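User: Hey, quick favor. My workstation is busy. Could you predict this chain's structure for me?
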Amino acid sequence: MASHFEPLKGGGAAVALDEVEISILRSLAIQLLELIGPGEEAIEGQDPLAALFAEGPSEAPSDPALARLFPDAYGGPEADTQDDELLARSAEFRRFTETDLRSRKRDDALAVVRTLDSLNAAGDGGAVLELGPDDCQHWLGALNDLRLTIGTRLEVGDEDENDALYRLPDSDPRKPMVMAYLWLGALQETLVETLMP
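Assistant: No problem, here it is.
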């Protein structure tokens, strides 16, 4: 897995992916969609203004990966959980922002699945994925969310802990996820580089 993005003339980026890479990326994006959960279905005849002000959850998710994707606005996990004012402000912020944030993360992951599906329809084996500027932004968001999720599951921490994690023997069951984490990081880094002026 040595794929990396390269800039396209006129904006956007391209990456050559083999069949296995396409399958892994698609599977991870689907798993991310399942983790984020289904979107709010539009109700026919619903007032669009009312939908704009719909409230989301007020409590932080219990799943550590979701808590990383949807962190507290005030203090985070290190904050004093006994501070009622801080808890109230975090709950209020979450209630008014998480629904939109979930929707954006869902849109990013769906864009990855759709662009990969369009490659599969084009032929067998590997292919060159070409992304326009808008799709690049979706891919950046999804790659970041995937890395945050996998990093949380792997309990990626400070540099010393990470060194041990990166040198796992092939027999360790975490090894494939570590490899995916590193590969996604390389994809994300090269995509950012292609979009830099």
